[in-house]
Amino acid sequence: MSEIVLKVEDLHTSFFTRSGEFRAVDGVSFHVREAETFGLVGESACGKTVTGLSILRLLPEPAGKIVSGKITLDGTNILELSKKEMRAYRGAMISMILQDPMTSLNPVYTVGNQIAEPVRQHQRIQDKNMVEEKVISALRLLRIPAPERRLQDYPFQMSGGMRQRVVGSIAMSCYPRLLIADEPTTALDATIQAQYIALFKDVQKETDVAIIFITHDFGVVANMCHRVGVMYAGKIVETAATSTIFKAPRHPYTNALIHSVPRLDRKDDRLYSIEGQPPSLLNLPPGCRFAPRCPDVMDICNEQQPQEVEISEGHSVSCWKVK
Amino acid sequence: MVRFIIIRLLQTVVALIGIAMLIFVLVRVSGDPALMLASATHTAEDIQQIRVNLGLDKSIPEQFWIFVTDVVQGDLGESLFKKKPVTEMIGAALPNSLRLIVPSWAVAMLGALLLGVLGATRRDGFLDNGVKFIAILGQALPGFWVAIVAVFIFSVTWQLLPTSGLGGIDHYVLPVCTLGFFVLPGMMRLVRSSMLDVLDSEYIKLARIKGLSERRIIWKHALRNAVIAPLTVAGMLFAMLITGAVIIETVFSWPGIGFIIVEGVLARDFPLVQAIVIMVASFVLGINLLVDISYAWIDPQIRYQRT
Ligand SMILES: Nc1ncnc2c1ncn2[C@@H]1O[C@H](COP(=O)(O)OP(=O)(O)OP(=O)(O)O)[C@@H](O)[C@H]1O
Ligand SMILES: [Mg+2]
Fold it and tell me: End-to-end alpha-carbon separation of chain A, Å?
């Protein structure tokens, strides 16, 4: 098996606001290997983006803080790096793609200029022709047609799909070890979405980059991810290989999520949706966080938090039913 | 880009003709200079004779036509009272006004940019609160009051700076600072709020993800976007300074345009007032034209749409 690139252990990230401490990420552990895509799935506000931003140490200041935990990239605990050392990791070792391609590029600078920045910054190349060569190869990696002619273009001259490829080029320009893709296809329409996912599989084959793919769409998970972590209210409740998650989900929340995916092969197009709301992060219940909405709830679920159990190689679940 | 400039140039000329007509009519309905030139011994016929001499007996459209043909030949008329060509009077006063307005504008804009950016990046810190305090002060206090208080403190009490008139660099400090203070706070607030919006945007997040330094993020990625909106206002503020200069020139006895237009209006000196207003208007329109062109240069989206 290939090398582990990123290891997150018992990560706790909170937002300290006037109304109290919001435990946005509350004890998350997972790892990603070289050339592997790990999916992070869950309903809105369960803490997916905050997990990604914690890995980059770019939480919104001053409220967001990593309270405890360990994040190791290629053996280095990045939480112990100085601010300056951390900046040298960003864009070079760890990159991220944001959700909306229409707003994530700077409107007043050319595409070439924006891709060249991380190259200049991290690879310390000053020679104009060499920088341009790197920029073109980054554009080519993302299959942008006629890259030489794209350098002088501004973002507004490009379609949404093309812009998201440019964002991908920026992320991949220094060949990072880890790429965090935060719902990169949500804003794109269906055909473009499928192309983008296929493209990233190719990019991964060529570069062996480890990818954390954040999404709430199980269709995308099936297509893109090797393994999946299902998140609920700041915790990962189930981790398994993608095929296992679809064939034998063990957590009632995973099961409910999978069934809420619309399927074309089924006659009734009524969506299965989960009743109720996730708990407030300000006052979490003492027991399992999913208990109030769980169809299989037992007495103990409301009293004590379930521990994570590894039921088979690479398949862990936190649920009293599984014990 | 060239087409864009030509179109804006034509618009400017049309606006200027409109303003010339308006001011021409307005000064003529405001009063009769013949009555002011005449003394008690003049008869009604004498006064009529003065009107004929000045060309005021003709209809207003006729007078305007004569005025325009003269202007095209470079003749803006003669002051009714000083008996000097108005161009000569303006020529003497204008450099004095510009010497006051241009540095005031430059100091105010640079100061506003710097303070606005620093305020936004140290949000709610000590500096930001100071900046907000200056903004409130500047917008609450009348300009002439600030000028008089400044004269009292720096010239009368501490005797550091001269009270009035032209002279060396020390003569500039008070007029330039008080005039600049007319427009600095408004501009500073604009820059600050525009900067805060930009710093919240996704492309700034992406710039951080790329590992760029905070300095580069602020002064390269954020600033250029943040000045787009305040830039159009910067031109308008220049026009405001021209009006503000009337007050400041009076307080500091600064022999500029503001000084002589006040005299001209009081004496119903048509040719002088007309000429100054038209000149100031072409100045302001010219500045707006420059602003639009630099706007197009900063924001590529405009540059590309209008070519
Ligand atoms: N700046 C902030 N201040 C306070 N709370 C925040 C802040 N940013 C995020 N949170 C809280 O952290 C929690 C997790 O948010 P996060 O953005 O990680 O959700 P998500 O899983 O990415 O959801 P989505 O699918 O909507 O993107 C939410 O409850 C949110 O309210
Ligand atoms: Mg999110």
Answer: 29
CA atoms within 13 A on the CB side of A127: 4
Of residues B247 and A56, more confidently modeled? A56
Report the C-alpha gap between B162 and B149 in whole angstroms.
14
Q: Which of B75, B76, B72 is nearest to B24 (CA)?
A: B76
CA dihedral of residues A296, A238, A185, A52 (deg, nearest 10): 130
Say if A54 falls within a structural domain: yes
Whether A50 lines ligand 1, by a CB cut-off of 6 Å, is yes
Residues of A in Cβ contact (< 8 Å) with B225: 106-108
Above 80 in pLDDT, residue A252? yes
Element (H, E) at A65: strand A64-73
Q: With contacts defined as CB-CB under 8 Å, which chain B residues touch A122?
A: 211
A107 touching B (Cβ < 8 Å)? yes
Nearest-atom number in ligand 1 for the CA of A17 is 4
Q: Is the peptide bond before A62 cis (omega within 30 degrees of 0)?
A: yes
**Distances from the Cα of B35 to the Cαs of B24, B31, B44, B48, in angstroms?**
19, 9, 10, 10
| Strand, helix or coil for residue B164 | coil
- Tell me, yes or no, whether A286 lies in a domain: yes
For residue B304, the model assigns a pLDDT of: 67
In a domain, B107, yes or no: yes
Which structural domain, as residue segments, surrounds residue A302?
A: 4-93+176-318
Cα-based torsion angle of the residue sequence A238, A244, A246, A247 in order, rounded to the nearest 10 degrees: -130
Q: By the 8 A CB rule, do A174 and A122 touch?
A: yes
Residue A25 domain-assigned?
yes
Residue type, position B195, single letter: M
Helix axes B86-121, B257-266, angle to 10 degrees: 120
Q: To the nearest whole percent, how much of chain A has pLDDT over 90?
A: 73
Query: Is residue B67 situated within a structural domain?
Result: no
Q: Which of B206, B299, B300 sits opposite A98 (nearest CB)?
A: B206
pLDDT averaged over every residue in chain B:
85
Q: Is residue B201 in a domain?
A: yes
Q: What is the pLDDT of residue A261?
A: 62
Q: What is the mean pLDDT of residues A237-247?
A: 95
Q: Looking at residues A245-272, what average pLDDT do you find?
A: 73
Tens digits of per-residue pLDDT, B34-55? 777 777 777 788 888 888 877 7
Q: pTM for the full model?
A: 0.81
Number of domains chain A contains: 1
Partner-chain contact B203 A104, CB within 8 Å: yes
Helices (H) and strands (E) in chain A, counts: 10, 12
Predicted ipTM? 0.90
Write the pLDDT tens digit of every residue in B190-233: 999 999 999 999 999 999 999 999 999 999 999 999 998 888 78
* A98–B205 CB contact, under 8 Å: yes
Measure the CA–CA gap between A27 and A50, rounded to whole angstroms: 13
Burial class (CB in 10 A: 0-12, 13-18, 19+), A267: exposed
A279, A262 in Cβ contact below 8 A? no
CATH no. for residue B129?
Answer: 1.10.3720.10
pLDDT in tens, B62-77: 888 888 888 888 888 8
What number is the average pLDDT over the span A174-180? 97
Whether residue B293 lies inside any domain: the answer is no
